[in-house]
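Fig. S4 source data, part A: sequence.
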Amino acid sequence: MAESVQPPPLAGWRAASAPQRHAGVAGIQVRARQVAVAPPLAQRWAVVTLVVLVPTCLAALVLGLRPALTVITAGAIIAALVGLRRPVLGLYAVAVLCTVDSMTRVYLMNGGWLRWNTFNYLLLVVSALGLPFLLRFRNSQLRLLQALAVLLALGLLRTPDLARGMQDLLGMLGVFGLLVYFARAADEPEVWFWLGIVTGVLGALIGLAFYAGVEPAGRIDPNAWSLSSLTALFAIAFGYPSALLRRRGALALAALAAINTGWIFLSGSRGSMLAACCVLAYLLAVTPGLHRRIGLLLVGALLIFGVATQFGDLEAHALSRVARLFDSSRDLTNRTSHRWSLAVGGWRIFETHPVVGVGTGGFIPAWRKMGDAGDIPDFEAVARGREAHAAWVKVLAENGLPGGLLLAAVVISFALRGWRRPRLRALGLFASATIGSIFISTEFQSKGVWFLAAGALVILNQEVFLRVMHRTPDGGRSP
């Protein structure tokens, strides 16, 4: 019933739900009066969320990250639970939790296995509650994700490290809870734009608190920290097409994207820099007109430069890491901070167990058991129990060829799905390229990559999701 007052699906990823399509002329008139009287629900919840987030993040500049993260995380968990009845609020809440996830694991949830997985448990409960919907929705992309989860679970039967394997499985299962949150809020007008605003502002301010606050930034692995701003970039990418139809909306999201990209650059994480470049390329691709693209480039470059130059030591460190990657006088092991050694070792493990792998979570024990390490560069430097640091390597070593093929199918499925819908082609290519690049430098624990996967899957299949969401058990339609 909102079709007459909303932008086309390409602009806002908006598709009418089943009850809306049959509302008729009277329904359109009622909706028009509602829009005239009050802001859309997505905007109202966004304002409420920002009223809490902005002063809390600014207070972190003086009080430190731990108190601010405590308030943000506790409030977001409560909001996520309330969001089971208020879908838009729930989506904003889990977006906030995904954005600060890497930081809360260091500053708050480091008191043992149970606390470490607080967010995972929440998403697991939501997945269980949404199981009827997940099973009813027939889609090849979702089935591939489910097949990958089943394969990881079966890998627990032969793993030499059950605890680590269960952790890997929990990290991957979170995508299903995120899917439920995305799907339930997807038909709300303007939700994508305001999701980008909320998450982009949070990423920008928490990054400022991280670098300029009273606590030293070195307490957390920069590769993990950068995932916070990277998650904000993913939400901005979801909201950008809708922002193009709003006055200064695209400029606002572009500015937030540039600030978050600046924080990612200062982290020195080259894997996150590559993923950020994918996001920026997507924003340019969907921006209409050469003049608007040039303007976007200039604004983005100035903001990134302005952010980076405020922290000279971090800027120099980040530039040196990028330069080292392209320094031909160094070997691959040195240029990739031993990631190449881990990849070669992972391939050796795969060659030994090509069919079923060594079991989910078994990479470290299998590495330690390798006898002939002569062809692995700097084996002694990395043979101290390091993780694979790459989902591609990890899955091949732990779950064999079936795992590698399933993971590749999941990644490629976004591009294939988008290719069938020309207006969403850029989104599909962006999602596949970005997820594939992230899995070069990280594993399954990052909530950011699953946030991107869940959001892109819902957008690419929005009409089918909404049709299933509004179907009652007896085959009718929900009220």
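Fig. S4 source data, part B ends here. The radius of gyration is 22 Å.
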